[in-house]
User: Fold this.
Amino acid sequence: MNNNEEAEMGHAHSDKLRRPVGDIVQPATRQFVEPNDKQSTCTIKLAASPPGDAVRPSSCPGIYCGRHYLADGNWSDCGACPRGYRTNSYSICVKCEDSPEFYDWLYLGFMVLLALVLHWFCIDTAALRRSFCKEVFALHLSALVETTMAAVLTLLMSEPWGKLEVRSCRTQKLSDWYTLLHNPNPDYADTLHCTQEAVYPLYTMVFIFYALSIVLMLIIRPWLAGHFLPVYGKMSIYAALYFFPTLALIQAVLGGLIYYSFPYMSMKSLVISTLTDVRNMVILIGHWLLHAYGIIALTQLREPALHAALIALIPLPAAFYVLTARFTDPNKVHTD
Assistant:
């Protein structure tokens, strides 16, 4: 190799050293040049990461405190996640994208049935009639329509808006219902308030349903009550104005406990006096439906054949009562 060739190689080497860095590494891409005669370029796209000082922020104290992205691209301080978000294992607030499980739908259905049964109970009690007449039936039907409309409107008002769907956060444990009790106290100084709806939207949906039920009842029921039961019909409205705030208070304090125990509460005993009275027949069918709902809530129909057979056995307690009631009539018990 002569001196001229060595000089040319030296100039080429110096040109490569003087090449601008931007020619090799571009923003969001990296180019790798293979050392052969025919240059081939391999470009790898870097994963998009949120702007800020760090890709993963430091963890927050407590199990419900988290950080979210700010408009300037940095992380927020530790605190409560916005509504519709909850923290992950890295203390980052992530959007809830889950759909309610079958058990969650059963819970929401139970809360609707609870309000409907209380409506019917108050109507039946206020009517002061042993027979099931058309006037009482009209108010029962009104309560059914009001409750159904309130439930549908509640679904339409939940995310995604205007659809009969619900976007939710998955319930993981009982403490998810009581985040107020889990605000951390770092260094035993100031309390870090991270109260949020970790079970979004199962907690607030019930309150929305109660509010809509009251509004619809005040719109529909007074006219029907004044037309069919002018004297006693309005008493069912007053009763509902009392039990709805009570239900809201129970939901606020015991919502999580109800969520985990409602399958056992909805299995009510079948107490029947006779099958010839239309009123008692309606009550009996209502109890059967509640009993069936309780079985479905407990089993979630994981074994359809077996659990369908259990549902088919629901009328047996009523049949047993009818067949044995004459042996337990107090009027036929003789004492010495």
Observations:
- The radius of gyration is 33 Å.
